[in-house]
Specification:
Elements: H1 2-7, H2 9-15, H3 19-35, H4 41-79
Helix pairs in contact: 2-3, 3-4
């Protein structure tokens, strides 16, 4: 998933069905490609898109981990 986030960050949001994130990231990705020739400004737009995708990815992973821990704690309390 990391390679998808780095090279095609809008696809990450498309796979996760997060439509607002997809539109926002697609705009940043298109701006990056359109302005890459102008003194590297496109790198800024690309970095913003990748940063946004990694932020959401980390948030999803932390939420998944918290759910796993919560389920394990609930199970151990129910047993004991």
């Amino acid at each position: 998933m990391f390679l998808v986030i780095i090279f095609l960050s809008p696809v990450y949001f498309l796979v996760r069905k997060r439509w607002f994130g997809f539109v926002l990231n697609a705009i940043l990705y298109i701006l990056a490609w359109m302005t890459i020739m102008f003194f590297g400004i496109g790198v800024l737009f690309w970095a913003l898109g990748v940063g946004h995708a990694f932020w959401v990815y980390r948030e999803d992973e932390m939420r998944r981990q918290a759910d796993l821990i919560g389920a394990a704690v609930a199970k151990s309390r129910a047993e004991g």
